[in-house]
Specification:
Strand content: under 5%
Number of strands: 4
Radius of gyration: 30 Å
Distance between the termini: 96 Å
Strand order of the largest sheet: 1-2
Largest sheet: 2 strands, parallel
Helix content: 40-55%
Mean pLDDT: 74
Oligomer: single chain
InterPro entries: Fun_TF, Zn2-C6_fun-type_DNA-bd_sf, Zn2Cys6_DnaBD
Domain Zn(2)-C6 fungal-type: 17-45
Number of helices: 27
Pfam families: Fungal_trans_2, Zn_clus
Keywords: Nucleus
Main location: nucleus
Length: 672
Amino acid sequence: MSQGSSPAKRNRKTFSGCWSCRERKIKCDEAKPTCRQCKKSRLECKGYGLRLQWIINKQLDAEFASVNNPRRNIALDAHTPVLSFDRVDDILTTLGHYDPRYMPTVQDNVHIYMECFGVFRDVDSRINASSLPIDSIPTSTEAQHTLDTANTTLSPAIAENTSISVFDHSSATLEDDRGSLINGSLNQSPSISWFGIDSHSQSLLKPLGSLAEEIETDAFGVYENGLDLASPSVPLGTTERFLIHYYSKRVVNLFCVIENGASPWKAIHLPKTLRAVGEITIEGKTSRICEALVRSCLSISAFCLSNDCRLRLQETEALRWEKLADEFRRQAINLLRNAMEKDFYPNKGVKYTDFLATTLSMITIDVMSGETDTCGIHLDGALRLINHGQTWEQQYTSKAETLHRMYFYLRAIFESTLPRHSRSRKLRTSCSTENDADSHDVFCHNIVAKCSISSLQSAEDQNTDPKIGSYESIYGVPYSLLFLLTKVIDLISKLYDESFDGRIPLHLMDECDELEHSIMDWPANTSFPSEPLNDYSSSAKIVYYHTAAFHEALIIYFAQHIRLVGHRFLQPHIRAVLDRMEVIEQIKVETNLIAAPLYWPAFIASSEAFDKALQNRFRKWYEHVMFYGIEALRTGFSVLEEVWEMGPQRADRVTSSWREVVERSGKILMLS
């Protein structure tokens, strides 16, 4: 280098530009949020954020190990064990039951930590979406953008960010003429003033915003073009994600009589559905039975949306959601059939609970859609599954036991209203374990009795909430009363076999007397109090009144089918059922609780109500509970209208009036 010459200018590389300029290998002025180079070229500026690449420790490549590489390499621990899906389910269930009031902070802002999951302490600066003022709720356009730009399928973040924005929370008014909502038969007063339920009913039917309408339109455009989502490995789109979100935020709350964070639909069906969605999204596939469960949940959610739209007199939207729900139901049934034929073998590593949960969800579809003719088919399928599962299931998990309790309840309610000509099998209520007899025990007493939690809490402990997973916490009725119902059903079946003419055969007389004593003495035998205590929680009160109403209805059920007692002698029991069912709805209004009641007691009691004042009270109760969107209730109410029109029973009757109507019309009731 000559003395007069200047030193060569050294070219220094920098790595602080935007990622777009780095990829194009041009100089970036680092303007934010968008650099001038990208603006000038009309390109998307990919920003300046740090990019992380996860690699295995022993597989470090020289290129990635270079210090000049702009990416930050974070090595994974090769010895870290991979958690099974079952373990993840257990952890998430445990964390879901966590209550910060009873556990101290472990460290920093962490309350509880299990494996790689933790629950964090609430921070004052964190915004709770449910507490936002109306003006600050995101618009439906923002919600649409959130769903469209999301790179995952219904992650917790999406569920939180869209929990309010998918609904229009502006003040909503219901149509004045609500009489047309129930088969055109409820033409009473134009508004509901009873119990102040007007506002509560409106809260159950918040109109869907433009997001739902856009999703709905897109969905039906896709289906009309012939896309069959029953094929495996098809990721869920915006419509399906919206339906699962609606299922998780609204639908699952309807099926328990109280607010129950660990209900089967929240602790079993929903987690299994979300896990299957995650497998489809990440791995591109899931099992046939899990795919069937996803489709069944989508169908339930779409039917619920259809029912809500119909109650708001939006018939066009209701029909479109109903069409989509029918398509999902068809897919679910086909997938379930194929899974049962090809996958239900222990050597294939299938999960018994996946099959049972999916089969029982088909009954939920029937109840939500109102098409209850196939309930018996699905219950028989669940029975065969349970009986077959006994041959290779050594010990049942807590989830399996909960599903067994669901089956027992649904079977008992279904069999109680089944027409006589539909009984093609011999019912049995004994708990014998002989293999040849088990197949005839449609109630599966030999399994259910072992997994049933205590039938009723002690009197001094009833001010606390019911135990998680018990019959009381799900249906508001203890196992002991359901067991008595199955015994009454079995006795009625025996009388039908004897061509019952109103006179009890001598060989059944003792059994009738013994069962009658068991029903009438049930409160004293179980220490059931005559009135709830003042310090009962709201949930405990709801369970108490459901139990009391069910017991009174069981007395009526026994009297109208076996003793053939006239309706005038049943008036005290009828009024007791109605009073308790009204109080239950009053508690829900006061606590802003959205949970559908048990319909069986109200139906049985109202079928013997021939006083006009009582009928009007029952009509108002039915009009109110229609807003829960359970379509199967319409069938039951249509039967009641025929019974009331017929008037009191004849002296030569051999069964109840409502059963005569059911057998004449061929209607199948499912009053769950």
